[in-house]
Amino acid sequence: MESTQQAGWISKIKIWIMEYKRVLTVTKKPTKEEFLTVVKISALGILVIGLIGFVIQMMKILLFQ
Description:
Layout: H1 2-26, H2 32-63
């Protein structure tokens, strides 16, 4: 029974490695324009979340003081 479990783990690892290789062959390095777009969108999202948190904090301070 132990050898079948070991064979199962080995086959799972082999499948995982094959999927990992497939993903690496499909992916590509982003162009400078794509990278800058992702950076801008991420920064905008962080800014929006920060502003929402700031507004909530200010409302809490003003209402409960």
